[in-house]
Amino acid sequence: MYNKFYITTPIFYPNANLHMGHAYTVTICDILSRYKKLLGNETYFLTGSDENTGKILKSVEEKGENVSVYLQNISDNFKELYSQLGISYDQFIRTSDKEKHWPGALALWQKLVEAGDIYKATYKGLYCVGCETFYKEKDLEEGKCPVHGTIPQEIEEENYFFRLSKYTVRLKDKIREDEIKVVPVSRKNEIMALLDRGLEDVSFSRPKKTVPHGIPVPNDPEQVIYVWCDALVNYISALGFGRDDELFKKFWPVDVHVIGKDILRFHSAIWPAMLMSANLSLPKSIFVHGLITSGGVKMSKTLGNVIDPFHLINEYGKDALRYYFAREISPFEDGDLTLEKFKESYNANLANGIGNLTSRIMKMAEDNLSSSAPVSDEGFPEEYIKYLNNFELNRACDFVWNEIGEMDKYIQENKPFKVVKENKEEGIKQIEFLVSKLYFVARLLEPIIPDTAQKIKNLVKENKSPEKPLFLRKD
Length: 475
Known about the structure:
Shape: elongated
Structural class: alpha/beta
CATH class of the domain at 338-462: Mainly Alpha
CATH superfamily of the domain at 338-462: Isoleucyl-tRNA Synthetase, Domain 1
Radius of gyration: 25 Å
Strand content: 15-25%
Strand order of the largest sheet: 3-2-1-12-13-7
Helix content: 40-55%
């Protein structure tokens, strides 16, 4: 059977530059994609930007810029962050792309129409611009959006609606039986509780005057396709659905959508229902991660606790931030990041950990081995594989750093740097063991901190000690 792996991030709003939470999501995807590639899977990693939104107009008006120029500048910023983080995506999809995205959105809309699931009606409701969704009074928290904490606008419009309610029971069955596997279980329980309350039909269009740069509804130019049948469709439009569908046939259904907990409803209720309506295969899994806080509270410009990912990359390097995301942030719950915690973790586990260990071992190897030690690029430990297959990136890292600790312990107990002077044959044997073990650790680190892993592998193959520390200690 064909061995493929398709993974996606959400597509992010280009109404501002990306923040730490966005950096976290794309890094998770990159680690999983690299890992699957090392296992021999043919992978496809998709990310992008959601550009047909009302948020864009607000940002453009505030800045007094041209829409297309503004979007280009912001998407370039997205790609710059991804480049600096070492994100190895295969495609960056933009929903403003009339060639790559629009045909897929229009094709899916038509399938929903053919299924009898699109109808027109007048709607009056409470609309959050930040979420780009309508809320019921009962869903608000003290009259405010539960996500953004803002008071929604009261809007009355004539829109097209999608018969979401029609799919409540089928969705419950699919999620309960893990045909769509929602991870972790706490998020599965959350969406099941939502389904138990019942789904209501959802608006699928907005007046063209509200979002003039959106995708026109077929046969109704005064309406544009609203975010759900636009943004969510990126996962298949990027694969050529609605035009050249070679990639779609190869990689759909998606193996995992990686999302934040704030967009769980959209991805585990609205999106699968759309696919059911269109008679398309459902996502295999939805991995829902928590949010990144700072000092235990959500990062906010008002509170002054925002940490720019570019700052940490420039100060510590891309692999340091990737390491922190993978090991120090829980994959399933909110995780905390402060400058103090970051520095402490960096010094303890990178500078004094893998960095110092590499220097010690390779100095012994360079001084005492006549050639590089034998190494292997075959296989991964079952425990390590299990953790990454279950999206437990932190436990996979713990496994690796346990190996690093065992190597430190071996050096302390056996003192190969002394043994080699007294019993050269035994000393060389011990040093070769450590070098091969170091190479093994580097292989485990390849998905997580790829630049560092490659440096270690090169040092082993060249039988050289590093000219400078892999991670300079920060005092």
